[in-house]
Amino acid sequence: MLNLFLLQALNGLQFGILLFLVAAGLTLIFGIMDLINLAHGVLYMVGAYLVATLTAYTGDFFLGLALTIPATLLFGIILEVLIFRRLYDRDHLDQVLATFGLILILNEGVQMLWGAAPMSVPIPDVLSGSMPLIGNMRYPLFRVLIIAAGLATALGLYILVSHTRIGMRLRAGATNAPMISALGVDIRRLFMLVFALGAMLAGFAGAMVAPILSVQPGMGDSILILTFVVIVIGGVGSVRGAFVAALLVGLVDTLGRTFGPILLRNLMDPSAASQTGRTLAPMLIYILMAAVLFFRPAGLFPAKGAAQ
């Protein structure tokens, strides 16, 4: 049982890291730009498709990943210039409708370019093995790479946001964007930077997960819902909150799906416990969100200036 718990805890950590990569950019976009971007999950999908295409073209996953990161950054800048900067001054309903329409357009565009059939990305040979944990238990090296890359990205974001001039402007923008604009900061350029950074992080998450999941149209829709849950739990505009909340959601979701049916077997027969556990497991993260909002309506680590 201990081995199973450790294995699922690592899977939950890996899932939480991926959620953080998607949520970090979106929480800055939402917190600084006050923009509801339902199309953020599409950037995750685009990153997966780009790494699949570039890996097949170059024959090397790491080279494909290195090309995908700037490509998603450029894609984010193009979207911001052509579409999103026209939505900043619109109300939230207009933003929801426009970005929902963008989801449909980009999903159809992906199917036109790559087809509807799922694509796969081979795990690099150097990371196709596993590492020992406890006893005979082993854990895939590629999943370890995802965890390490996510933690390194989180550290880099912390340094960027907390210890650089750009980060100072980002924090100020999350607190009072009109004020920093009045002080002479080019708010449009700041918005473009935030959006491009968010697109790059989402694309990086999609690229990293491509070798362990099927790359297919609409793959960003489900993770978008979980991303908004992460933002609500962590606090809008807070990267630290997004990190903690993403790990909580990843662990609760993964451990709940595994151990929920096992625990319920103590109360009911195995078949009923299995069915009930599968039904209740997806609800756990929303129960967690409700509990957090009950005690801390602004989230665990709200950005400075947010209502408590």
UniProtKB/TrEMBL annotation:
InterPro entries in UniProt: ABC_transp_permease, BCAA_transport_permease
This protein's record includes keyword Transport: yes
Signal peptide per UniProt: none
A molecular function (GO) term: transmembrane transporter activity
Regions that span the bilayer: 12-31, 38-57, 63-84, 96-121, 141-161, 190-213, 219-236, 243-264, 284-303
GO annotations of cellular component type: plasma membrane
Subcellular location: Cell membrane
Membrane association type: Multi-pass membrane protein
GO biological process: amino acid transport
Keyword terms of this UniProt record: Amino-acid transport, Cell membrane, Membrane, Transmembrane, Transmembrane helix, Transport
Listed PANTHER family: ABC TRANSPORTER ATP-BINDING PROTEIN, BRANCHED-CHAIN AMINO ACID TRANSPORT SYSTEM PERMEASE PROTEIN LIVH
UniProt similarity note: Belongs to the binding-protein-dependent transport system permease family. LivHM subfamily.
Protein name according to UniProt: Putative ABC transporter permease protein
Species annotation: Aurantimonas manganoxydans (strain ATCC BAA-1229 / DSM 21871 / SI85-9A1)
